[in-house]
Amino acid sequence: MPAPPHLTQSLRNRTKHFRSSSRSLLLAILVGITVGFGAIIFQFLGHLVIRFSLVQYAGYAPPEATGEGSPFSHPELTLHPWMIVVVMVCGALVAGWMVYQFAPEAAGPGTDAAIDSFHNQHGKIAARVPFVKTIASAIALGTGTSGGREGPICQIGAGIGSLVAQRLHLSPRDRRILLAAGMGAGVGAIFRAPLAGAVFAAEILYSDAELEADVIVPAATSSIVAYSIYTQSLPADIRFQPLLGIKVEHGISSPLELIPYLLLACAVIPLGIAFVRMFYGSRWAFEKLPVRPHFRPAIGAFLAGLVGVGFYYLAGQQISALAVLGSGSGTLQEAVHHSMRLGPSLLIAIALVKVVTTSLSIGSGSPGGVFGPSTVIGGCFSAGVGLYLHDWMPTLAPHPEAFAIVGMAGFFAGVSNAPISTIIMVRALTGDFGLLLPTMLVTTITFGFGRRSRLYRKQVPTRMDSPAHRGDFIVDVLDGVQVRETYRPIASYSLIHESMSLDEIVHRLADNDQHYFPVVDDNQTMVGIFTDDDVRSYLFHDAIWKLANASDVMTSNVVSITPEDDLNVALGHFTALNLEELPVVKDHQSRQLLGMLRRRETIDTYNRRVREHKEATRE
C-alpha cells in the first residue's frame, strides 16, 4: 500500500535534511583538517623567523608562554637592543611588500576582513589570501611586530573555508558557513581552545549580544578536528597543558570579594576605549602618509621599535619590559603566576606602552592580530591594579594574580563585543575555572559600557542588519501566503501559439503593452516564453519575419510556480533570476498555464503584510 502523499513529502524533506547535515559535517571536517595543518605551518614559520632574525642578529629570544612549544633551542645570547629595531624594520619591509603586492586585503588584523567577507562578500575570499597571510604574518610577528596570532589565523582559516566552498561551487550560505567554520578552526587550534573557537566564530560577527546559530555546529566540528591535528605537532609534555603554563586555581570565598572586581571593571573600560581610539587614530594617520602603502608597515615598525627599546632602557633594562614588542606572552604568563615579581608600576607601564606599540605596528598595515596584544594589555594592567587593591584591601583581594586573568577577559570583551567566547578562551588559556563568577561580572560590565568603541568595525549589530541575511526577514513576512491569492488569470493575457510567425508577433506587440508572452501548443500547454525585448532584436531583419516563428524566439527553459507555492518561492525566483513575471501552472508535470504572477504585486503583498504586522503589534 503506498504511503499518503503528505507522509511521502515529509520523508523526502527529512532525507534531504539528513543529507544536507551529513554534507555540512563532512565539509566542516575537511576544513578542520586543512586549517589544522595550516596552523602548524603558520606556527612553525613564526618560530623559524624568530630563530633566524631576532635570535640570530639581535641576540633576543622573546620570552614565550610555557605552552608555546618552540621547536628551536637557543644558545647563550648577548642582547643587542637596537638591533631589534633593525630586524623589525626589515621584517616589516618584506611583509608589507608581500601583502600590498599580492593581497592588500591581508593587511592589518585580518579578523575584520573575514567578518566583512561574511556579511558583504557572499563568503568569498580570494584564494591567494590565506597563503600570503600565512607567510607575511609569520615574518612580521617573528621579527618583533607587536601583534598576535588570532587575526592572521582567523583570516587564514576563513580563507581556507571559503576556498573549499568555492572549489565545490557551493551556495553563498554554505560559503559563509564554511568561512566561519574556518575561523573557529583556526582560533580553536592555535589557542588550544576548540569550544572557544566555535563560539568565537558565531559571536564575533555581531556587535550586539547575538550569535550566528547556523555556524556553531560546523565551527565546533572543524575546531575539534583542527585542534586534534595541531596538538599532535607539540611536545608531549605540553600537548594538553594550558597555553599560559600549569593550571591556575583561584576562587572567591565571599560575595564581598566582588567589590574589587567592580573597581577593576571601572578601570579597564577607559583603557579599552583609549586603545580603540589610538588604534584607529594611528591607522588614519598612516593612511594619510604620502608614501606607497608597501612602506607604511616598515615606518610603523621603526616607530614601535624605538618606543619599545626606549621603554626597555627606562625600565632599567628588564627583559620583561620588551613584552611591549612581539607577542608578550612570556611576560603575560609571569603576570598571571607571579605578578609580585614585576611590581604594579612596571605591569601598568607595560600595558600602556603596549597600547602604543600595537597601534603603531598593526595600525600601519602590518599583518597581525589584536587578541594577543589585548590579553597582554588587559592582563598586565589588571595585574598591576590587583597589586594595588591587594595592598589597599588585602582581605577582599587576597590573590592579585587573579585580577590578571579576570582583567584580560574583561578588556578584550569590551573592545571586541565577544564576551562569551572571551570568557571561554581565557578559561582555556589559564585552566582556571574558579574565577568564572568575577569574570562574568567584569566582562558583562565592560561589554555593556564599551560597545560603542569597538575594535572590529565590520561587525553589524544583529542578523537583521547583515546583508547576508537581508532576504531572511522578507521570507518570514510572506510565509503562508500562497501564489493563488496574488496571480493574474490567463484570461487577461495575450497568448502566443508556437506556430505563430514572427511577422504576426511583431504586429501583435505593436498593439499590446504586455511584456511577457507565454507560448502554448494546441492543448494550451505552455511550451515556452519570450519578452518584447527578445523580439526587438529581430526588428531590423524583416526578411526573416515570414520564416521565423514563436519557437525560434522563445526560451523553453521556463521557471514556473504553482498556485500552492507560497510567495517565498516566487520571491526567491524573482531575486535570483532578476525576473518581473513568472508563469503559474497547474502542476509542473502537465504545465497547464493558469496565469502570471508579477513581481510588483508580490512586493505589494509584502508591504501590506508588513503594515498589518505593525498595526497588530500596536494593539
TrEMBL record:
CDD domains: Voltage_gated_ClC (cd00400). The keyword Cell inner membrane does not apply. InterPro entries: CBS_dom, CBS_dom_sf, Cl-channel_core, ClC, ClC-type_chloride_channel. Keywords: CBS domain, Chloride, Chloride channel, Ion channel, Ion transport, Membrane, Transmembrane, Transmembrane helix, Transport. The chain crosses the membrane at residues 24-45, 79-100, 177-202, 258-280, 301-325, 345-363, 370-390, 402-426, 433-450. It comes from the Bacteria. SMART domains: CBS (SM00116). GO terms for molecular function: chloride channel activity. PROSITE patterns: CBS. It is a multi-pass membrane protein. It is found in: Membrane. It holds the Pfam family CBS. Residues 487-547, 554-615 form the CBS domain. This is H(+)/Cl(-) exchange transporter ClcA.
